[in-house]
């Protein structure tokens, strides 16, 4: 296995079960682990697993480390600073997998028919100037965090379907993109609904299409860990996934299926998401962020393969990297293989 410090991991990136289906894991004996997260509603399964004691029941003493973008989390996993994380597939993550540093072990956020999902947006300044459909974005500026990010993938796949060219503008952080959209410095973007909806209502931008229109069944984020954890810490990894899956089930019951108390769930999520707002103002955005999380961390391999193939077609990762290089499918149920 390849063990990397954070500086080496950055260099290698080139700058760029079902809960019921898993066997009961071997308890991890109160192992201290760090879990990488973003302060998004889509990361709620981890927050629930901590708050409701599922991690503790699985023998894990969890501490969160929060990030602002996907690629730094991949670096932290590769360097051993973080043990498990949930994030989108990026060029950096794939490159680290190619170096034997990380493995995708499950699925998290996904697009699903009938459940609200990510939106394609046009800035208000561009919209008022006549850019009112995705096809109108031809030749315009499209915001991404980094080249090789999930934003880049979503924009490129949409542009390919629409037969247009986009000028991709890397702005590093979601907050910077929001500011650029508000000020009209960029024309288009795509983002999860809990960010898209309130700012659309406030007039900052216009929601013009759903990502699922172009990427049905898109496996938006995955659960991943170091290659050494995947290979050598099976009990601990199964314990993590078991607790994570319990968090997914609780989230779905309260926020999607209506079989559990939604207000109680909002209170829990609010401890981690929109913490700078009072609960009454945070609640609508938390509700707007409701998307499907994969039950039991099931992983859509067809979607992961499509993403890998796109990164390769863009020359962002090596052409000889295979799905087996990126994914360890032994931990969870997989679909679309």
Automatic annotation (TrEMBL):
Keywords: Signal. The keyword Signal applies. SUPFAM superfamilies: Periplasmic binding protein-like II (SSF53850). Residues 1-28 form the signal peptide. It holds the Pfam family NMT1. It is found in: Periplasm. It comes from the Bacteria. GO terms for biological process: alkanesulfonate transmembrane transport. Residues 41-252 form the SsuA/THI5-like domain. One of its GO terms (cellular component) is periplasmic space. InterPro entries: SsuA/THI5, TAT_signal. Belongs to the bacterial solute-binding protein SsuA/TauA family. This is ABC transporter substrate-binding protein.
């Amino acid at each position: 296995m390849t063990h990397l410090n954070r500086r080496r991991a950055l260099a290698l990136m080139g700058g760029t079960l079902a809960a019921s289906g898993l066997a009961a894991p071997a308890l991890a004996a109160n192992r201290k682990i760090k879990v990488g997260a973003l302060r998004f509603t889509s990361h709620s399964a981890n927050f629930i697993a901590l708050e409701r004691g599922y991690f503790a029941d699985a023998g894990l003493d969890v501490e969160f480390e929060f990030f602002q973008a996907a690629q730094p989390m991949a670096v932290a996993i590769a360097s051993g600073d973080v043990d498990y994380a949930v994030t989108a597939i990026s060029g950096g993550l794939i490159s680290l997998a190619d170096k034997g540093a990380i493995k995708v072990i499950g699925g998290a956020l996904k697009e699903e028919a009938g459940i609200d999902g990510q939106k394609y947006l046009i800035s208000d300044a561009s919209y008022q100037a006549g850019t009112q459909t995705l096809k109108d974005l031809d030749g315009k500026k499209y915001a991404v965090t980094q080249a090789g990010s999930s934003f880049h993938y979503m924009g490129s796949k949409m542009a390919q379907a629409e037969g247009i060219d986009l000028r991709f503008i890397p702005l590093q952080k979601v907050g910077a993109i929001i500011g650029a959209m508000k000020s009209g410095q960029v024309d288009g973007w795509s983002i999860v609904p809990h960010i898209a909806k309130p700012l659309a209502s406030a007039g900052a931008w216009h929601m013009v299409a759903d990502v699922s229109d172009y990427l049905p069944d898109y496996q938006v984020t995955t659960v991943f860990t170091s290659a050494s954890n995947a290979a050598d810490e099976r009990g601990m990894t199964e314990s993590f996934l078991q607790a994570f899956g319990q968090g997914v089930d609780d989230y779905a019951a309260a926020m999607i299926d209506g079989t559990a108390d939604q207000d109680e769930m909002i209170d829990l999520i609010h401890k981690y998401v929109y913490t700078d707002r009072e609960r009454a103002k945070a609640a609508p955005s938390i509700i707007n962020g409701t998307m499907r999380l994969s039950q039991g961390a099931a992983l859509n391999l067809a979607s992961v393969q499509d993403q890998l193939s796109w990164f390769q077609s863009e020359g962002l990762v090596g052409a000889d990297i295979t799905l087996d290089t990126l994914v360890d499918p032994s931990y969870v149920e997989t679909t679309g293989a």
